[in-house]
Amino acid sequence: NEEGRQAALKTIKGYQWKKKILFAKEADPVVDPVTAKRKNEAEEPEDDPKKPKLSAEESVVNAVTPLAHLPYEEQLAMKETAMKDFLTFLTDKFQSNIPEMRKWLNEQRSANDGRCISLESIKPSPIVDGYRNKCEFSIGKSREGKEKIVGFRIGQYKGGHTAVASPLPCKNLSPGSKRVVEHMQAYLDQSELRYFDVVSHEGHWSQLTVRTTERSEVMAILQLHPQDLSKEDFEAEKQKLREYFTSGPGSSSGLTSLYLQLVGKSLKEKGFQTNFYLVLGDTHVTEELLGLKFRISQDAFFQVNTKAAEVLFQTAGDWAEVTKDSVLLDVCCGTGTIGLSLAHRVKKVIGVELCKQAVEDAKVNAKNNGIENATYICGKAEDRLPSVMQDISDSEKVIGIIDPPRAGLREYKIKDKGYMAGDNILNRLCRPVSIRYRGTPFRLTKAVPVDLFPHSKHCELILLFQREDSISDSSEVPAPVKGPSTKAKNLSTAGNEKPAPLSEEGQTAAAESQNKQEDKSVNPGMTEGAVDDVKEAEMKDEVDAE
Ligand SMILES: C[S@@+](CC[C@H](N)C(=O)[O-])C[C@H]1O[C@@H](n2cnc3c(N)ncnc32)[C@H](O)[C@@H]1O
């Protein structure tokens, strides 16, 4: 917020670092890519006369499951091509940012169709229809003007196009979600409260989230803007919902848990102390994944396709070659799924997660599954990882699994291997050794897409990065060209070329040129990037002191 920004500016401005005075100025934040994409889409004329006018049903299917009209094999082929393009893009990035990699990249490119490694065949989702265990539906007005439709938005905000259409034709919805949508629609139809209008900000009902599990549990979270409702009005609404879904027409909805979630301004002043109010049933749902049971809180993250997530985690574990002497860092661990599903194969799991409730879930999940070698830390990974790593001795085999990658993660702290995406972080992983980046560089050695989202254009991509000195001689991946190393004597001779020892000046120059490259990629307006840079400066100071 503005207050924080001003405090940061005050702290940094005039700070003396290495006999230089730091200067800081306000910068405009760079547009978030998702916002930019939405803006571009919004600028496309929606009422283009050349475009065939689609029915609401066609529009919703198109928007949510744009590949649903294709056989699944064709969908997979399209995603595989998209991931090959991504690998080519990544290879180009390596090529332009890391000169030390060029010789190796050229050899690899000619063997792999322009890419630094070959892409393994996409792993399909074990279930193709009805796989989504979580859906968020909007509550709005249909194109025809019918109010309180529970569904997906088909219009764009521009020009007030905010129409919502029924989600029932979408193939990815689970049968449990569809049932709840139908029952909630019936409830809202008879409710006196209106839908929340995203343009005027008037009205009450705004969103319905449904979570379903393999064990047929169903949780619904109905979002309400209280506006001028009093505490008593709210309690009355809660009571109405409870009766409707326990003894009324909604009793056949299959709901095992129902929450009301309050959203909007000044809730505390209106007397509402929390956002979530349990209306009926259990506080959590429990999902089964890889033979373990996972408790999931109403707002904690869980992979939306449980069966395909099993394929994802199993593959990640196999590739990471986790063993009984590994310490597994589950970074951004959510409810602990990745770490806990691999806990029996490693010495210790350490999970770091921002969301307090998810951390609580992860701890309960470890306990409920009889897992004693997992610990969980609540906080920002970028803040907490440095101290976590300090407590791990250098002789330990550390494997980091990061899903998803976050700007600001301290990639140099991942000692052995890591999974991540996001080209900036990937670039830095493969950087040559310098004062800034200790340990041998990483190499991308494997890549495989896993389809978690049939009928949509998305999929997950697992990338395996290994430290050069941990790539075995027998590896199918050609030996990488090594960069300069501060720990040359510790490097294995897996590569053909021995690392050239660098003078102190050479090492400093390498670090600075790396810094310059990164300055271009660091977004000056983003808090995370700025904080990261200050931390980098501090870290560099530490290294210099050493
Ligand atoms: C996509 S979920 C993945 C969860 C888990 N890795 C999995 O695969 O089930 C991302 C998680 O990262 C957490 N998260 C986001 N930013 C974070 C940060 N800076 N540090 C730690 N956790 C973060 C979110 O709260 C969320 O639970």
UniProtKB/TrEMBL annotation:
E.C. number(s) listed in UniProt: 2.1.1.35
What is the active site of this protein? C430
Q: Which family does it belong to?
A: Belongs to the class I-like SAM-binding methyltransferase superfamily. RNA M5U methyltransferase family.
Query: What enzyme class is recorded for this protein?
Result: transferase
* InterPro entries listed in its UniProt record: SAM-dependent_MTases_sf (IPR029063), TRM2_met (IPR045850), U5_MeTrfase_fam (IPR010280)
Instruction: Give the catalysed reaction(s), semicolon-separated.
Output: uridine(54) in tRNA + S-adenosyl-L-methionine = 5-methyluridine(54) in tRNA + S-adenosyl-L-homocysteine + H(+)
Q: Which organism is it from?
A: Stichopus japonicus
Keyword list, A-Z: Methyltransferase, S-adenosyl-L-methionine, Transferase
State one molecular function term (GO): RNA binding
* Binding locations of S-adenosyl-L-methionine: Q303, E353, D403
**Under which name does UniProt file this protein?**
tRNA (uracil(54)-C(5))-methyltransferase
Q: Where is the composition biased (Basic and acidic residues)?
A: 38-56, 532-546
Which is one Pfam family of this protein?
A: tRNA_U5-meth_tr
Q: Which residue ranges does the record annotate as region Disordered?
A: 32-58, 473-546
Q: Which BP terms in the Gene Ontology apply to this protein?
A: methylation; RNA processing
